[in-house]
Amino acid sequence: MVEISGKEVTVKLTIAGCPAAVSIEEDVRKALSSLDAHLQMTVMTKAERDALKLKLRNGKAPRQNPFDETTLTRVYLIGSGKGGVGKSTITANLAVELARQNFRVGLVDADIFGFSIPGQLGIDAKPTRIDEMILPPVAHGVKVISIGMFLETNKPVAWRGPMLHRAVEQFLVDVYWGELDFLLVDMPPGTGDVAISLGQLLPTAKTIVITTPQLAAAEVAERSGAVGLQTGQSVLGVIENMSWLEQADGSRLNIFGEGGGSDVAARLSVLSGGEVPVLGQIPMSVALREGSDLGQPIVASHPNDPAALAITEIALKITSDRLGLAGKKLRVSL
Question: In angstroms, rounded to a whole number, what is the distance separating the alpha carbons of residues 284 and 303?
């Protein structure tokens, strides 16, 4: 919160020890550098925090799921049958690309046991707590939450089903997301408690399945999409990652074979009773791997790389998927 009185500029942080305090002060001092003004940094009172929370919730009561059946946010659960297919890398890059297209984007790292999204996006900052409300860090224009932000470095998580449900529920309910155009959820690989919980908590969500060209991986990936169908989500499509390696002479080396993505799409089309398309094929890329290691998504660092171009094309297809408004309460005031 900022208060201005004459030459006095007061910035009130939400809490003492706010993790963003240093960067906020630096940004404000830079903005004031050409002015004859005095900056004071302080902390909100409890009454001021309560008023802020009420304003952020638009007057709504706490502990309400903003992504229930009335939401106007387009929600996508991005899953895979197994680990190691690049699911988190693709999810992080899709989120950043959607933000680059000027959409308001949130990203939930629901891979509780194998969280990697903070590293993928280069996030070191911790979420900010205002009593029971959590303000998520923002990276590359994307609001992000992950269990990794609450743990000591590389500390393992060993939780049973009820704890997993409570964690993903908190990510949706206690985090202040604001108005979002898209919410992407990086699912844990395979099937299990988290998939069931999110099926209940996100009734309007659609599933996107990540696989590789390898037919053995495709057979497992089918199960990921099938679970979504069982919990009420439709399948938007299939993304085939690591489709080929571009050679110096322009030829393609199909290291993992061919046809995995189209095979999964065909099987899910039969299960769903409707057409499930292949949204795109992403070639292998050194820049994609390096960007993941460095926290620099390829769509931002190397937007003309073939892998980045493929991800951009997939993001455009996602934006063309329209949310049905039947039965929705539109937020329109006269």
Answer: 15
Q: Minimal CA–CA distance to 184: which of 145, 225, 220, 230?
A: 145
Q: Which of 17-21, 213-217, 296-300 has the lowest mean pLDDT?
A: 17-21
Asked if residue 60 has pLDDT above 60, the reply is no
Dihedrals φ, ψ of 18, to 5°? -55, 125
Encoding tokens for residue 158?
């060993």
**Tokens for 237?**
């499509």
Residues 225/235, Cβ–Cβ less than 8 Å: yes
C-alpha span between 210 and 218 (Å, rounded): 9
SS3 content of the chain, % helix, strand, coil (to 5): 35, 20, 40
* Amino acid at residue number 11: V
332: Cβ contacts below 8 Å, ≥ 6 apart: none
**pLDDT tens, residue by residue, 217-245:** 888 888 888 888 888 889 999 999 999 99
Dihedral, CA atoms, 254, 260, 262, 263, nearest 10 degrees?
140
Q: Average per-residue pLDDT in the chain?
A: 87
Residue-wise pLDDT for 157-175, tens only, equals 666 667 888 888 999 999 9
List C-alpha distances in Å: 308 to 312, 314, 329: 6, 10, 37
Q: What are the extents of the domains in the chain? A: 2-56, 74-319
The mean per-residue pLDDT over the stretch 175-181 comes to: 95
- Is 74-319 a CATH 1.10.287.770 domain? no
Collect all residues with Cβ–Cβ distance below 8 Å to 156 and sequence separation of at least 6.
113
